[in-house]
Amino acid sequence: MKQQQVTRVVSPAYLRKADAARYLSISIRTLTDWMQKRIVPFIKLSHRVCLFRPADLDAAMNRFRTMAVGE
Description:
It contains three helices and two strands; from the N terminus they run H-H-E-E-H.
């Protein structure tokens, strides 16, 4: 009997800066500017390492959402 291998996609709990920029479809420079302006929340572990939670990025982007007429 052959065992089937199950492939699972695990979404990371935290994203690094390049991954967060890709997640938001923006440049790393824009993400850095948003970090300085405190538009997006982040966790700074060291001088080089900043982590972002996808849920926090989604919440930050929802603040920019403009409602259409009838919504």
